Prior knowledge:
- The protein is of the alpha/beta class.
- The protein folds into two domains: 4-45 and 185-316, Lambda Exonuclease, Chain A; 51-181, no CATH class.
- Helices cover 60% and strands 12% of the residues.
- It is built from nine helices and eight strands.
- Strands 2-5-6-7-8 form a five-stranded mixed sheet, with helices on both faces. A three-stranded mixed sheet has the order 1-4-3.
- Helix 3 (31-78) runs parallel beside helix 5 (114-137).
- 28% of the residues are buried.
- It binds iron/sulfur cluster (SF4).
- Residues 15, 17-18, 21, 300, 307-308, 311, 313-314, 317, 319-320 line the site of iron/sulfur cluster (SF4).
Amino acid sequence: MRYISAGDIEKYSYCPLSWWLSRKEKHVESEGVKKHRKIGKKAEEGMKEIKRIREFERDVLYFASGATMVSLVGVAMLYSSYAIAIAFHITAIFWLLAALYLLWNSGRYETLWSEAYHRMMVVIPIIATLLSILSVSFLIEPNYFLGYSLEIASLLWLIVATFFFYKMLKSEIRYSKIRKELHLPDGEIIYVDDLERSPILKSEKYGLWGRPDILLKVGEDYIPVEIKTGRVPRGPHFSHIMQLTAYMLLVEENYKAPPYGLLKYGSYIFRIDYDESLKRILLEKVDEMRKALETGEVHRNHNRPGKCRHCSRRDICPERLE
Ligand code: SF4
């Protein structure tokens, strides 16, 4: 099957002849493309900040839970109590059972609230381990030197955790600034169109490919964002909606069906809901394009002189309207 790009769908939906003529064009970097690249760079900075936030978050979790563990074991080293040891022992068994239950069920929840589930799969075994260590520590004879040493060590770990927390907050502030500059809604930037590094999204089933400008992760959903530079229209253009629909279909094929996509014109953002009727219109256009590629028969499909006036291929178009 011949692959068709989301960018070509946009051109075809504007005017089939415009798409046909564009196939012979040499790529020239216009002002719009340069502006687009600048926005992409900003979005990429945002994506890097998100990566840093996730790394600092992990460091905070490791050092804070480590400090808590060391501190509690330190306290346990200062006392000895059989009753407390038994209480910790029983509680640890419950947490261990909860960890085993999560592990056993992990396949079922893979696609649902997977992120929260995976966090629980990390935190619950840590708590079970801590309780087990405590239950043993309370059985050991008090050792003041070891107890106080562990308390000092836990304090140092807590200082390191606070440092990472500070770094995480700084990255969050930077990310929120970038998001505001780009006028993007809440969500994490996880993909930015970059010719060298971004993977192409492909659909073998429909023979489509493309790179959305931005992919936002909002909760558990992946939302494609298409950025358009130039004049802000009163409403989203049909050709842009088709291009965004192609990205939504690619997101559906590569991740999961998005509830909507976003078309961004300057600081204005239009939300386009993704549904079966929109997908059907897109696939009809793709079929028409494949037929055109086979037959080589492509013509203007409108009678709007205004459209031709704004068309970048009017100078070479044999069917333009004056
Ligand atoms: S000039 Fe008009 S007919 Fe020709 S490609 Fe452009 S929009 Fe289509």
